[in-house]
Amino acid sequence: MSAIRTTITTWRSTADRHLVERRAQRQLERELAEYRTVSERRELDAMLSRHTAEEIAPIEAILNRQARARVLASNR
User: What is the C-alpha to C-alpha distance for residues 46 and 57, in angstroms, rounded to an integer?
Assistant: First the structure.
């Protein structure tokens, strides 16, 4: 296989992997946004409490972004 073909194949694989990861990220963001009520958030917090801080860091980051967005939207 030529170097150019290898480079193109590698690029496509990388692009495909990033696309799959981004789709999964958006799906997770949508699912987390569905936890709206106090009781739903308590349920989510209970689920997250069974994991380490390192494991839930990406989820916490999403939840914090969503909370900031809600605050900004309510201040308009």
Answer: 15
Q: How many residues does the chain have?
A: 76
Q: What global pTM score does this model have?
A: 0.77
Is the CB of residue 28 less than 8 Å from the CB of residue 62?
yes
Helices 38-48, 53-74: axis angle to 10 degrees equals 160
Phi, psi of 32 (to 5 degrees): -65, -35
For the record, the structure tokens of 59 come out as: 């989820």
Dihedral sign, Cα of residue 50, residue 53, residue 58, residue 63: positive
**Mean pLDDT of each 10-residue bin along the chain, 76 residues long:** 83 94 97 95 97 97 95 90
